[in-house]
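Course assignment 3, question 2. Fill in each field.
Student: A.L.
Task: Predict the tertiary structure for the chain below.
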Amino acid sequence: NHVGELGYVLNPALHGNEVALEAARAVMDFGFNELGLNRIEAKYIIGNTASRRVMDKLGMKYEGTMRSAMLIKGIYRDIGICAILKNEFKC
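Answer field:
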């Protein structure tokens, strides 16, 4: 279906300096322009505003919440999903 998924984990010492944003933008550029993807999705734990902010800055659109979709440290967590289409991506 020409769909990719973007994920990132960042060392807390690097938070706030846009490393995740720059790296994610480069990966998205590769996905759309080299791999021919039409859509790239990303997921985040509801409440992780920093991760959601990166997705917003990348131009991704919020598409919904998957309720109790991931078991993390013994607790089911709600997961948000955002996505961007090739024709929406701006380098």
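Instructor remarks: The two ends are 22 Å apart (CA to CA). The beta strands are 3-6, 39-45, 61-72, 75-85.
Grade: pending
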